Amino acid sequence: MDIQFNSLRQEKDATGIIFCDSNCKLVGYGKKLDQISKKYISNIINLDNSFKIRNSKNFDYIIIHQPQNLKLTKLIIFKLKKYKEFSVRDFQILGGHIHALIKFYKEDKVIIYPDGIISSKMSFINSVSEMILGFSLASYSFTKYFSKKDKNNKNKNNKKLKVKFYSSQHTRLSKNYLNIQAISDGVTLTRNLVTEPPNVMTPPEIAKNAKALSEYGVEVKILGEKEMKKLGMGSLIGVGQGSIHESQLVIMKWLGGRNKKKKPIAFIGKGVSFDTGGVSLKPPNGMEEMKYDMGGSGVVIGLMKALALRKAKANVIGVVGLVENHIGSKAQRPSDVVKSYSGQTIEVINTDAEGRLVLADALWYTQEQYKPELMVDLATLTGAIIVALGDEYAGLFSNSDKISKQLSDAGEIEGEKLWRLPLNDRYDKMLNSPIADMQNITNGRGPGSITAAQFLQRFVNKVPWAHLDIAGTTWTKQPLPTSPKGATAFGVKLLNRFVNKFYEGK
Ligand code: BES
Ligand code: ZN
Ligand code: ZN
Description:
The chain is α/β, with parallel strands linked by helices. About 35% of the residues lie in helices and about 20% in strands.
């Protein structure tokens, strides 16, 4: 994908995209093209029912081939309903739909004329930038394992696709595009890490990808099993001991704040490169989905890339606990007791409830080492959250109303929605064990996502904290407006917005 910006002009042998309002009144350069075409365009769009292709609740479109008196070979006119009320997410979705259309019609040279589409809720630059972000995110594809590039690569059209934005404000748009590219690159990295198969994307390989961020100014430290053992991280180590791949704890540091000594904010990700369930083995149906059990770590790594690329003015720590939860003669057993880095002991009743064991040590380490202002962890933690919220909302758990509100607001803006669920002492007590400080699951059926969050809370040492259970939102079986089927990177945009809106430059 190649996106460029230029000043207003017509173009030969290209498809132009222009816009009109709900009364079919052309905006921006569309008006000028209409003049040049001697009202050919407005005559067509004012015909009754010309916009008969209903595309979405916010817009319809019409295509004119070989428009009279114009050099363009084709014109696509988007009729935007109430664009003055468009939100950030509406613009992203519009960009996603424009991409879908261009792909469907196999366009390869497209000029978009965005002047005039501006919402009362944000500036022109932001409106168009969000549209470009949606466009860019929708264009994601992962084709590296097709051996015959031409036949199997369904998205081969993308490669040569050239999209240009022609605008009176092209200089400012192109400058702001750097921010958009940063977010888009972060999302792409997350999607790539999550989509890679688990025989390739092992814990050391994920760590290597995190290490590569040092190129952008992120300080990266990697702890191997030896170091973690020495520190006493028995909870994390226990999960990975059945695997041939070495467990890792990776710490990424981005100090972009004006005051480098200001307390950082911290993001912690569950990185189970594959979750067989361990000795408490998962049933075979659907087990292949467990390659995305490192989704939380993927989001943290992608987020750190986005923040570094756009040089975010905030001090941010990213920590990912990387393990493979495998069966084998060395694997831990149900009823094993492990000692966590916090000193608390855990009876492992079910080896498939492993994410919390990984996060327990990662969370304690983060608060102890970096004394953060707050911690947010992300994890594909429980199947129960899918029962509760499906793929529409991720679960939010927190000991802080303030952080909950900030995260929910950021998620609402980005279309990565969160739904808060409760924590309380009675749920916490359900984790008590007869032979250790706690067990990793409760006895009998219960509120599985809540008790998992209660477990994590025992390792945050009262630091302001939120936990996002992204088990239902990390992977999509249906294409979404700005995310093709597969890895969504749910959380990268949300947390980038969270940092930008509430923790930057202050
Ligand atoms: N990785 C799974 C949770 C999961 C399920 C993620 C479906 C994505 C889609 C997690 O490690 C797990 O296995 N959790 C168990 C917990 C149970 C043993 C208490 C679950 O949800 O069944
Ligand atoms: Zn599991
Ligand atoms: Zn898991």
